[in-house]
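request received
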Amino acid sequence: MARMNALETGLANLGAAAIEGIGHFGRFWVFSGRALSFIPMELASVRGWRRLLPQCFQIGTRSVPVIMLTGMFIGIILIVQGYEQFDNAGLRDMLGGIVNISVASELGPVLAGVMLAGRVGGALTAELGTMNVTEQLLALRSMGADPIRFLVTPRFLACLLLTPLLTCYADLVGALGAWLVFVLYYGGESEPYWRMTRQMVEFWHLNTGLLKALWFGGTIGLVSCYKGFHCKPGAQGVGEACTQAFVVSFILILMLDFFLNVFLNGLYNLWYGFRSLI
Amino acid sequence: MDSDRSSETAADLRRPIIELRGVTKRFGRQLVLDDIDLAVERGKNTVIIGRSGTGKSVLLKHIVGLLKPDRGEVYFEGQRIDQLSERALVPIRRQISFVFQLNALFDSMTVLENVTFPMMENSDVRLDREQMIALARRCLSMVGLAGFDHKRPAELSGGEKKRVAFARAIAMDPPPKVILYDEPTAGLDPQRSDVINKLIRELQEKVHVTGIVVTHDMKLAYEVGDRILMLYNGRFIADCTPEELRQVRDPHVRRFVDGEAEPEDVVTYVA
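response:
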């Protein structure tokens, strides 16, 4: 009897969790749709820009130091990891090109995205979560203002626009960091490093990296704001929401990276296959 | 702040400005409001008293559409509002101000920006920017906060935040038709509470703003209330004038008014 009760309780809990998960999924898309629907109005109004620019400062300018460090160490680590193998195979001069392809198309956007999910996403969730538990979101609604338009759309736009820019910065600093270690630590020559980089890194690699960054930025913005808007009461509720925002953003960045890679590889083959025909 | 009620007919003025019919609200298994009926008279102050957690704030949130009833109907000036969308509620909400229990000041804005915010976002307001700022400053000085314009909410004490929230609720031209006060004197010293009491009374008497005040503060209830209702276990168990309340014999009402614990709530440290 006791075992039956435990089984029933377990099944009931599982069912409740599934229903809650499906509910969150649906609410997230409604929330995202509403945030996106306000973009034209926000961009067309002076007040919209007044709300957007401070977010650009918070999300973009204040993230530059951490993005610089992240980008630089990505480049440095790749050089350190790859140097011996490439040197032993007599391919030392190609290392710059290989490292910079990796940085521009994959590691730059992914690691910049993860860093921003922690720094920006956590801050957004904490800010909006605190506004939620202190009734500020209710106050906005009671004044006839839409909290999604006022709070979410500017933050989403700032994440969307600035993540690619920050990724560019991470790529640049990563390439410079890798070059410095290649030249100063391993005694490599600058000319072949940059020549191979020019030959091997195509606009395609840069663009795919930026496209990924655009998706990652939008995901971070929406997930973080959604978690802040739906956090449980109290300091613990806000803390849990911040953790969930980071974990969900991180997982979604990796999942999106997979799907975008599959899609972009297909597109690459299609485009370059077509180009070779003409 | 002049009243702008010229377009309202005599019939409109006789009709309750707010009406709740059979409103029931549950949170999970907890029944918070149980088939509540309430008709709020225009231009009067209605005070709702009751113990903590009896659903007083929940009731206020139904009036402005922040919560939807599980059952029942909510009317504002004869228009049913409990089924309206967020967008359709905007014109209703612009006629109602809300002083929140936790003040709900926007942390990222200064005091002056907080007070002007509802006017800036309300297209019905006829003032230009300078006039809005002047009105906001006047409201701040009414609550004793002249010169606090550039402070941030984080720099204010609890009582000062409460007064900024009050200034924000009244800084509107035309003034709001209804102000919902959720514990307006909580956290204030007795003298500041008295300032707020007098302001609530003045808004009602001179500007004819309808007030709905939720409070535990019996001094506030007696001073500002034209009508006092007591909420207990999701239902109103008293509905009377302040004078009548002093004579009510219901034991729950009596104990609440006199500040005595319910017998089942009494606990002793020594067994």
